[in-house]
Description:
It is a single chain. The chain has helices at 15-26, 76-88, 111-114, 130-143, 164-178, 210-223, 257-266, 321-337, 343-362; strands spanning 5-10, 31-38, 46-49, 52-55, 57-58, 69-72, 92-95, 124-126, 148-157, 229-236, 243-251, 270-272, 296-303, 310-317. The radius of gyration is 20 Å and the shape is globular. By secondary structure, it is of the alpha/beta class.
Amino acid sequence: MTRGLNVAVLGATGAVGQQIMRILEERAFPVAELRPLASARSAGQVVSFRGKGLAVQPVSDEALARVDLAFFAASGEASARYAPVVAKAGGVVIDKSSHYRMNPAVPLVVPEVNGYDLNFHKGIVASPNCSTIQMVMALKPLSQLAPLKRVVVSTYQAVSGTGRDAMTELENQTAQVLEEEKPTISVYPYQIAFNALPHIDSFDVSGYTGEELKMIHETRKILGQPGLAITATTVRIPVFIGHSESVNVEFGAPVTPEQARAALAAFPGVEVRDDPSHLEYPLAAGPGGAAGRDEVLVGRIRRDQSVPYGLDMWIVADNLRKGAATNAVQIAETLLALGQWSEWSLGRAEAAAAAAADDLGGAANAGSGLTGDER
Length: 375
Ligand SMILES: NC(=O)c1ccc[n+]([C@@H]2O[C@H](COP(=O)([O-])OP(=O)(O)OC[C@H]3O[C@@H](n4cnc5c(N)ncnc54)[C@H](OP(=O)(O)O)[C@@H]3O)[C@@H](O)[C@H]2O)c1
């Protein structure tokens, strides 16, 4: 491939779409033309890429014509409608919505963990839920020490995980509460400022939320362990950027904290921050915090004294970067390295496109019970 790629970003005015464009710049991804797309609401708005202002276009079949690579960071409905358009024309979609994640024909990829799954894509690749990505980044190296028997996770998630409107809501409510005014509630069902909401996404009949079920199902798919015992409680807290997680792992054989630290430190994209005697542990914000970084930070690693072979740990990452945009761009970089856009591969993509789109159409979310525009 000598030229750069024609790249579309659907959701270019949103929290993740903006970050994708920044990361394409930072990592010098070979972009020939960038097409920022969103809904008709923001058509004509100007976004910046490589120092230039680009007008946002409303998404349509025509706006996606001749696109080699499209990042989708809009809604599940938009992905369902437009991803097959790109795949049918021989392009590749990297989808941040939950729409295709549990589709058996769609690889769900964190490149460091299961990049090999990109070998069987059919024009659509899904990027996992932000909370799932940071957890599997730690579980993968640990699973190479001893079999994972059970995982129990509780999350403390930033409002940027809900998008730009939620960040504005936290900012406004914080000011209102400090001024002793009644907070304006619109994005979340309750005040998020100075609060903790044990509710992310909608409730299922089982009592779990959609976010909890996503963590459970996606982790099993990415690790290739459909029978993994795993449970989750997901909580929204008044932090702008950076999800934190308390993760308890039970193993089938002994694993010491020292072995875990060494395996995690050796894994690409993970950084161990674990020296309680010097008050060193992972944080979301502040100097050295996860916000603004691509590494997944792991610390507070200790033996769980309630079971024979268990560890507790604290995992923190920037949900907009590794939890969303960085992971998506890394998927694109891996595809590039696999020869996705070489001339031979482009020819193959065109030949395979019609069949692929047919396969994908009927099976969206098969087996997941998940729908819509969830994180
Ligand atoms: N935030 C995270 O940490 C995170 C992590 C993982 C995955 N995700 C997923 O990434 C996607 C975007 O999330 P976000 O946090 O960036 O949300 P956001 O800040 O609310 O931005 C949403 C973007 O999508 C566009 N959009 C919405 N509906 C559309 C439609 N029907 N057609 C075309 N464009 C549409 C919006 O355009 P307008 O400006 O025109 O409204 C906006 O650009 C979602 O699917 C979300 O589940 C987010």
